[in-house]
Amino acid sequence: MPEKKANFSRRDFLRAAGAMGLGSMLSPVESLSSAKDKLDLDKFQLKVVPTRPFGNTGINISILGLGGAFNRSNQLLLRQAVKMGVTYWDTAEMYGGGRSESAIGIYFEKYPEDRKKVFLVSKCSSTDPIFLAMSLKHSLERLKTSCIDLYLMHMLPDISWIPEGTMAWAEKAKAEGKIRFFGFSTHQNMEECMLGAAKLGWIDGIMPSYNYRIMHTDSMKRAVDACVEAGIGLTAMKTQAKEMGLSADVGKESETAEKLTERFMEKGYTVEQARLKAVWENENIASICSHMTNMTVLQANVAAALSKDKISFKDKRLLEKYARETASRYCAGCAHNCEQTINGEVPISDVMRYLMYSRCYGEPERAKSAFQKIPSKTRNLMVNLDYKKAEKKCPQKIPIGRLMREAVIELA
Fold first, then answer.
1. Of 33, 38, 48, which is closest to residue 12 (Cα–Cα)?
2. Domains plus CATH for the chain?
3. Is residue 96 within 8 Å of residue 71, measured between CB atoms?
4. In 3D, which of 152, 169, 3 has the Cα closest to residue 65?
5. At residue 409, does pLDDT exceed 50?
6. How many CB atoms lie within 10 A of CB 121?
7. Across the chain, which distance is largest between two alpha carbons, in Å?
């Protein structure tokens, strides 16, 4: 490197990261310290990801959470996450048929000292105390730990789905030291679930879908305020608000999307980083659970978490404009609106999510596997069902009928 050191600011780093990808600046095997020959990182002064209080639990968690279905090959990723301060780790019994939990368990066996640093989250696909107990037992075995910090009922669609006895089971599991906190995740009817949980008085944490498309609605603001008042910790998921779109629209970019990309790149970060930053501006959101299964995405998200740059008023308006223009490509999870019109005969919101997994996450097998769990009778019904009333009720104006028919073909 030349004798005169370059004046390389954090913004310069983010701009370079956005333009060429953090993975190309710091290879997956390369540590930050070994990259000093390329960049003046002493002047850059990287720090670990900041933390925020998680509701009234008395625990601070990293504002960036590591989410995804992990496997044995992700050990370096997990190690680097700890070093960067990304210590909120999210997994679930159903991710990879338990392989994701097992991968984390392998890591804790190799680095037992890191278990104390990690706020470990796992989920069960049931709300029934009997199944919760069975699933927790197996999760603890796979994770090679005696306690899970936050145990969640996964994909809760309605607060009424929580049966009597669940609170007592959760309190017993806490008393036995098997879990520290209890709650649920929710992809649909999030606001109603959050408002209902705030009234229960025993839910510690909730992981709702929460992003720039829905965070400013009056209903979501009320739901967040109610949870804050009740002392419930909130972790945002689905923060990129990816669109499932129509099959003919996949891959197409609008003029506003191009403007977003150009504007944020000029400011030193990507649109994806900007979407994270927009969520972090609400300090009531303790953490973002982000799908990160490779080093490039981890490093890019960490850079966004470390950046002190704020999303400007103009930036927010541009994001809102894009959200309005592409509303019909994104399911906001308000399943009660559409599914009631067809008497709940088809799980419209779930199918929309499976299309998103296939078209936007690049996970067609995961989408097909989930779709195939819908009873064949229901899948056959999907093709000819009249969705006109559902489409009229949808605030996003989504062409529900067309998407349901596309799903039957695409996810078969």
1. 38
2. 61-254+276-315 (3.20.20.100), 331-410 (no CATH)
3. yes
4. 152
5. yes
6. 27
7. 73
Q: What is the pLDDT of residues 293-343, one digit of tens each?
A: 899 999 999 999 999 888 899 898 889 999 999 999 999 999 999 999 999
Q: pTM for the complete prediction? A: 0.85
Taking a C-beta distance cutoff of 8 angstroms, is the pair 68, 291 a contact? yes
Give the span between the Cα atoms of 289 and 271, in whole angstroms. 17
Among 20, 7, 8, smallest CA distance to 265 is for 20
Amino acid 248: pLDDT: 53
Q: Which residues are paired to 405 by β-bridges?
A: none
In the structure, how many helices (H) and strands (E) does the chain have?
Answer: 19, 10
pLDDT for residue 373 is more than 80: yes
Closest C-alpha to 110, from 78, 149, 146: 78
CA dihedral 173, 174, 179, 185 (to 10 degrees): 90
Q: Are 339 and 347 within 8 A, CB to CB?
A: yes
Residue that has been written with the tokens 């000819």 in this structure: 384
How do strand 88-90 and strand 64-67 relate by DSSP bridges?
parallel
Of 187, 184, 213, the residue nearest 196 (C-alpha)? 184
- pLDDT at residue 190 is higher than 70: yes
**CA angle, 201 then 204 then 209, to 5°:** 110
Count other C-beta atoms under 10 Å from residue 143's C-beta: 26
Phi, psi of 163 (to 5 degrees): -80, 165
pLDDT attached to residue 267: 87
Across residues 123-136, what is the average pLDDT? 97
